[in-house]
Amino acid sequence: EGFMIITGAGPGIMGAAQKGAGADNSFGLNIRLPFEQDANDTIEGDPKLVPFNYFFTRKLTFVKESEGFALFAGGFGTMDEGFEVLTLIQTGKTAILPLVMVDAPGASYWKTFDAFLRNELLSRRLISEDDFALFRITDDIEEAVHEFKHFYRVFHSYRFVRDKLVIRLQRRLSDTHIERLNADFSDLVKSGTITQGTALPQEADEESLTHLPRLIFTPHRRNYGRLRRLIDAINDCAPS
Question: Of 15, 36, 210, 213, which is least packed with CB atoms within 10 Å of its CB?
Answer without folding.
Answer: 36
